[in-house]
Task: inverse folding
């Protein structure tokens, strides 16, 4: 590393170090290690091959496994992971470490790897607090939506009785009011059902079993049979894999994604939905921060509908987020949030790509999994 490179790395608000894979030691460490972890450069020189002593003891195996990931990286040159580092006072801090391969041998194996380790303790603690808050919110949503079902049923029942017994007395104006009330209560019923479904996902204790996703997808399409016939949509599908999953939840994910394509179709052309599947590459898994040594499947559901602006690619998975008015595209704004929650429950990833007027593609990355 040149003197200029060292000056630049010392300026970074992170620990920068280079690992020599042949010697098994650190060939360079930036001065920031003193500011962030309290070690002097003399301490670093004394470690030799024992540099892993800076890793918190419970995370050493994790760090060793992450280090092996770089041997599997072919075209990709970077990989990121989280672990805890011990400071000189024997306290630990969370660091997010990104490694880049600097040099390879003739066989393509890494000879030296540059690491940049950034302290993210406060950030992860905030994320943990957010997770706890979300869990509390889900608990509230479950209880509230469950408790609202009975009074809503009464409103619907008495509204129907009022229409049947006193419809002639109410006249046209009274009947119009009843119709508007019925429509509002029906929307509320759908919202409560969806909210209950959303809050129940993380509470599910159903076993994960080896499932044929072709069968699961056929069940999803069967649930939407009338809507598919009504819209005249054509669905083309690749062969889907077997994975270990909660088949009911994955069916719900497929139903929601297909429903989304059917809802946001373009009225002036035939709706075509293409379902694709293939193993995820090492580079794709690394980019999504997934374990590169595990098998994941890259499943896509693409349509030729109205699409969406790129800036909304993450927002659409948030609960109650809508890109269009209810009058134009009715719905609760929960369907895609349920999809994300199901993907999270399966230690997978879901994301979306689209362009206005040019359709949307939903990418679901799910692990193959193993049976107990």
Result:
């Amino acid at each position: 590393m040149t003197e200029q490179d060292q000056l630049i790395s010392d300026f970074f608000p992170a620990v920068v170090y280079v690992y020599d894979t042949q010697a098994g030691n650190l060939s360079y460490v930036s001065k920031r290690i003193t500011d962030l972890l309290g070690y002097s450069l003399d301490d670093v020189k004394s470690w030799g091959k024992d540099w892993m002593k800076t890793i918190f003891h419970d995370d050493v195996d994790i760090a060793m496994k992450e280090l092996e990931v770089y041997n599997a990286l072919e075209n990709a040159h970077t990989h990121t992971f989280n672990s805890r580092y011990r400071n000189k006072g024997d306290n630990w801090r969370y660091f997010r470490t990104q490694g880049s391969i600097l040099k390879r041998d003739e066989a393509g194996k890494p000879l030296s790897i540059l690491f940049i380790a950034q302290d993210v303790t406060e950030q992860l603690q905030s994320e943990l607090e957010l997770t706890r808050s979300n869990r509390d919110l889900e608990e509230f949503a479950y209880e509230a939506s469950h408790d609202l079902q009975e009074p809503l049923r009464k409103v619907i029942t008495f509204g129907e009785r009022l229409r049947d017994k006193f419809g002639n007395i109410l006249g046209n104006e009274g009947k119009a009011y009843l119709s508007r009330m019925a429509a509002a209560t029906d929307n509320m019923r759908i919202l409560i059902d969806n909210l209950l479904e959303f809050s129940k996902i993380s509470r599910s204790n159903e076993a994960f079993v080896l499932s044929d996703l072709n069968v699961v997808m056929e069940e999803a399409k069967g649930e939407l049979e009338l809507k598919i016939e009504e819209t005249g949509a054509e669905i083309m599908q690749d062969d889907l894999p077997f994975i270990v999953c909660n088949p009911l939840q994955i069916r719900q994910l497929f139903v929601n994604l297909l429903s989304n394509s059917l809802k946001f179709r373009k009225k002036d052309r035939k709706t075509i939905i293409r379902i694709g599947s293939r193993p995820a590459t090492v580079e794709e898994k690394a980019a999504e921060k997934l374990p590169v040594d595990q098998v994941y499947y890259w499943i896509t559901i693409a349509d030729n509908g109205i699409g969406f602006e790129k800036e909304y690619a993450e927002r659409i998975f948030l609960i109650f987020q809508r890109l269009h008015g209810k009058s134009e595209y009715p719905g609760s704004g929960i369907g895609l949030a349920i999809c994300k929650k199901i993907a999270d429950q399966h230690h997978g990833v879901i994301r979306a790509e689209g362009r206005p007027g040019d359709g949307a593609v939903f990418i679901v990355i799910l692990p193959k999994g193993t049976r107990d």
Summary: The first strand starts at residue 15 and ends at 20. The two ends are 48 Å apart (CA to CA). Residues 3-119 form a domain with the Beta-Lactamase fold (CATH 3.30.450.20).
